[in-house]
Amino acid sequence: MSKNALSSQPETATPALVQPDRDQSATPIHLVEKSSYETWAAARQPAQRAALAGQKFKGSAGSFAVYPDGDGFAVVAGVEKLESLSSWCLGKLGEALPAGLYRLANKDVKAAKAFIGWALGQYRFDRYRSENGEEGPRILLTQEVAAIAPALAEAGAVTLVRDLVNTPAEDMGPADLEHEAERLAKAHRAHIKVTRGEALADDYPIVHMVGRAAAREAAPRLIELEWGDEKAPRLAIVGKGVCFDTGGLDLKPSSAMLLMKKDMGGAAHALALARLVMESGLKVRLHLLIPAVENAVSGNAFRPGDVLRSRKGLSVEIGNTDAEGRLILGDALTRASEFKPDLLIDFATLTGAARVALGPDLPALFTRQDATAQALIDGGIAQDDPVWRLPLHDGYREWLKSDIADLNNAPSGGFAGASVAALFLDRFVGEGIDWAHFDTFAWRPSAKAGRPKGGEALGLRASWAMVKARFG
């Protein structure tokens, strides 16, 4: 895993990347808006202005420069608006500055929101590198002490998602997801129950059928974790845990398999959100469910045309074995619904259709209730983790019909693929339950400030903002 203060591993050798300011010696960082940069620069010494001009710094948002300051150096960085810093305005600084202590020179600027970008700009996934090449952490000092722990908790949750998604399937199979859940349960004194292999056949038959073709060490399982006061409002979180997706007998082309280590990204998001809930001591009864499988090819793989019986009793005709995520989620959503949660959230890397519609940055959001959707959208805007709502259009439910079963998992036609997949899941969520479904990419194809290429949490911070507001 990444060897930094935010790693999902319980290592504490690296100090927290944001710390209380106790007047330590530190390099100043000046934040400026482009419109006021010239005025700010005019107050610098000639040698300092020359250094900035030599770097062609103009105060544009996202850019920064260093200049001589006494026996050391100072930093100036451009931001959009000083009165409302974004989560990512310090991301590039956290990534690129030399190791050491820093503080913001702008005394009247509220910087708490930007702490996460500073921390996540230092994320590295170096598990498989013989040399990590890191010289040490960049630590930001602040007097906004109360904001440090929540920001680093969120950054740690994002790091957990990144680490799990970036890890190849050989080291992140169903058993490894189970191990991650066990570590989480141990850390927070939660109860964990795991149903594995053949034991799934009676209670979680679709999870069993989808995952049975994998090798024994990658046997399918349903992972459940419960935590909190049994009398508190019940929050269920479900995550798709397809640790590698070959497509099954409807085999993907090799090019489409290259990123399939990330097909357990929904499980990573679910684990991370559960961690935030427990770390914060939120007053809920948490129920985390992860169906973990590998969609493999062997002599006993489930086949196109098979009819599978689900935990709910609905029969599903298999139109395509590569639409396996919605199948295993069906059993998990049924189980979650049996306890009638006050809120049920699921995360899944479910459809390419969502990516075609919204691109890599925006998770597709589906909800039954308008108020829940708006709360999640508002949370995303507040936390710079935007989401976009797509419809659960009743007119498309007929596309799920099968000639011989209750449902078809992959109807022909190809229209509205993300909505049709969400409507399939809707059949397994209990009546009247407030449910939100995220069809997320869990991957960043190109780097941005504080957000390197690779595994990514998309929709996590929006969900956490909404959950905190609702149950906090």
From TrEMBL:
Q: Which domain of life is it from?
A: Bacteria
Alphabetical list of Pfam families matching this protein? Peptidase_M17, Peptidase_M17_N_1
- GO cellular component labels: cytoplasm
Q: Where is this region: Disordered?
A: 1-25
Residues of the Cytosol aminopeptidase domain:
320-327
Bias-annotated ranges (Polar residues) = 1-12
Q: Name one GO biological process term.
A: proteolysis
Matching Gene3D superfamilies, A to Z? Leucine Aminopeptidase, subunit E, domain 1, Zn peptidases
Task: Tell me if Ion transport is a UniProt keyword of this record.
Answer: no
Q: Which residues form a coiled coil?
A: none
Molecular function (Gene Ontology), one example: metalloaminopeptidase activity
Q: Does this UniProt record's set of keywords contain Hydrolase?
A: yes
What UniProt keywords are attached to this protein's entry?
A: Aminopeptidase, Hydrolase, Manganese, Protease
Q: Which InterPro entries match?
A: Leucine_aapep/pepB, Macro_dom-like, Peptidase_M17_C, Peptidase_M17_N_1
Similarity comment text for this entry: Belongs to the peptidase M17 family.
Concerning PANTHER family, the annotation shows: LEUCINE AMINOPEPTIDASE-RELATED, PEPTIDASE B
Protein name, please? Leucyl aminopeptidase family protein
Task: Say which species the protein is native to.
Answer: Novosphingobium umbonatum
